[in-house]
Amino acid sequence: MAAMTPTAREAAPKPGTDDADPTPQAAPTRTRTRRRPRVWRGVVLGLGGAYFLVPLIASFVFTVHTPGQGVSFEAYTALLAADGFTESLLLSLALAAATIALALLLAVPALVAVRIGAPRLRPVVEVMCMLPLVVPPIALVTGISTVLRWGPDHLSRTPLYQTFLAVQNESFPFVLVLAYTVMALPFVYRSLDAGLRAFDVPTLVEAARNCGAGWPYVMFRVILPNLRSSLAGAAFLTLALVLGEFTIASLLGFRPFAVWIVSISGAHARMSVAVSLLSLVITWVLLLALSRAGTAPAGAPGAANPARKARSSRTPSRTSPKES
Fold first, then answer.
1. How far apart are alpha carbons 207 and 198 in whole angstroms?
2. Residue 323 has pLDDT above 90, yes or no
3. Could you tell me which residues are beta bridge partners of residue 71?
4. Does residue 117 carry a pLDDT above 70?
5. In this predicted model, what pLDDT tens digit does every residue of 148-193 receive, in sequence order?
6. Inter-axis angle of helices 174-197 and 228-244, to 10 degrees?
7. What whole-number distance in Å separates Cα of residue 298 and Cα of residue 305?
8. In angstroms, rounded to a whole number, what is the distance separating the alpha carbons of residues 132 and 98?
9. Which of 89, 109, 171, 195 has the fewest CB within 10 Å, making it most exposed?
């Protein structure tokens, strides 16, 4: 049987015969089929870029060009001297930082505890975190304002009266932080839940506990490094929500950055558009910083080592004597 079986050299056709493999003729068709998706990809990206950039360019031209007077950057130079610009911007950034901290402080321990000790409660926690998507912001702010009015009337002789006054302080309205935390819970939950599903939390926690690690070490050195990108995504979405929120802050009588932009839009149209463009730039810079913070460094526990990957790919797999 071994003598009758043709070898690889005998089975290969000769260059001069008709049985030669026509691979060079099939190569142009492959290159054509590969170039078509690239063209469509460029067209789609170009249309998407034009959809976002054309309104921004038109807004910028509106702020710097005055018919009959030429180009002037007065709308941008007057921002630093505008009344309330710096205060409202710093207030929005402080509210965003406090909201991110409070939302993560509430969501991370709860989701980790559910994942480790009570998996059956996961649907209950999910429903509770998704409820703000069902309740409109106007209904939420109506309930908050009712409670704030009810508190001083009925609790004026109790220590809680000072608490109701403190959360409404105009320099830092903590009531907005509470409202924004409720509104950000659905986005924070989805981001963290996707991160917790990416690795086996009970196994890692059990291994760390068996090695003698305490719960603070397990949380900060085992779980949080694996949730680095999820934490950055949750902070990313929360920051965008706080910087662009207008309804709750306006109805409660506070003046963060979004409310300040609307308040000056009637008297200074060019300045309001310039401030809107500046707010977009500031938001993009902050979001890029958060996305950069979400990428794990090369030596982090959750990051893959490229040298190790290359070494493992170069190492041939060992085969047993029976397989050889």
1. 17
2. no
3. 65
4. yes
5. 887 766 677 777 778 888 888 888 999 999 999 999 999 999 999 9
6. 150
7. 6
8. 19
9. 171
CB 84, CB 91: distance < 8 Å: no
Total count of residues recorded for the chain: 324
Alpha helices in the chain (DSSP H): 8-11, 23-64, 74-77, 85-116, 122-134, 137-154, 160-166, 174-197, 201-210, 215-218, 224-226, 228-244, 247-251, 257-264, 269-294, 306-314
- Cα atoms found within 13 Å of the Cα of residue 282, Cβ hemisphere only: 16
Percent of the chain at pLDDT above 90?
Answer: 20
d(CA 234, CA 116): 21
SS (H, E, C) 23-50: HHHHHHHHHHHHHHHHHHHHHHHHHHHH
Q: d(Cα 261, Cα 224) in Å, to the nearest integer?
A: 37
Q: What is the CA radius of gyration of the chain?
A: 30
Nearest alpha carbon to residue 286 among 97, 135, 142: 97
pTM: 0.72
For 55-102, the DSSP string reads: HHHHHHHHHHEETTTEE--HHHHTSTTSTTHHHHHHHHHHHHHHHHHH
CB of 236 within 8 A of CB of 103? no
Q: Extract the tokens encoding 282.
A: 């500031």
Q: Distance between CA atoms of 187 and 199, rounded to whole angstroms?
A: 20
